[in-house]
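Continuing the batch. This is chain 6 of the set; chains 1 through 5 are on the previous pages. Same settings as before, nothing changed between runs. Recording input and output for traceability.
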Amino acid sequence: MDDRELDELATLTGALLGALEALAFIGRRLNPPDLPDLMGRVGRPEDALREALRKLSDWQGPAIVLRAQLDEAGSAVLSGFDELRAAVETGDALRAFRGLRQAPLALEALYPLAAVLPPVNRFFLEPAMRGDAALQGRFGTPAAHTGVMHAGGEPGARGGFSLYVPEYYTPERTWPLVVALHGGSGNGRTFLWSWLRAARSHGAIVAAPTAMGQTWALSGPDLDTPNLTRILLEIDARWRLDPGRLLLTGLSDGGTFSYVSGLEPASPFTHLAPVAAAFHPMLAQMADADRLRSLPIHVVHGALDWMFPVDMARSAVGALKSAGAEVAYREMGDLAHTYPTEMSGEILRWLEARPRPAPG
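Output for chain 6:
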């Protein structure tokens, strides 16, 4: 690689990662009325990215093998910013949400380069762990059947799932499993990225299923619970799971379904972590008393949640504690109805500290 291409690669990587961090900043703090202010706070990181991408077509040396993935990731980020800018101009909040959906597509395109570009490797770790050289070195030679993969048809297909297994997986130890359920309009392919940094950093396997229907089975026949059990068994047959650390979590409709399915007497999950979820006290009243007794549940909710007001979470915590569950509650004053990715690591630390016997 000549000096020019090396310099351009460094510039492009920096611009791309910076723009991705800006998208994450907006997504984490998005409350639709605040979007103009958020856009003002991040400035225009897409301008530097657009200029750096323009030079990709001139690459001729070894860096050319990186071009397709950098271009795909960069183009997704630019599309995301275009939608966000249009949302500010038109007042159409749906365009903002469409724009933010480009971020996980960019992450998916970029992730394979973590194995060859140290800045990308560090980017996919939690910020507090990016200085850990030993951890970074563990990704150099991936074990077989590790990394990001998909099962059950095309990525994001109904009833299928996306999976992350840490590249340093070894069968000589057991590994916690997180089954993370997307929100009502999402899919497992994109929701996986809410957990990837934490899973890489702390050593956990993450499965992100896609609902059988348009959203999780919150009414009518429940086809999702048997599918979740099937997915868990499929993963357990191939990788060595910790039977005392099987977490069911989810966002919004996914969080609500983690209550509905996870409180079933036959649920195989040892821990629950609903985020921004709806809850009715009847869920606790109707749940099996033995299932609820000492069940670890980590509830996360935003004080600014405009879809499911925070009083709903406070009610859930009271009802679950009264029923005998072991409840941790994190109320976030600056969170609206979105997923706080920094909580993934905190939930994993909570899970690590509270192993319990597998149900049944």
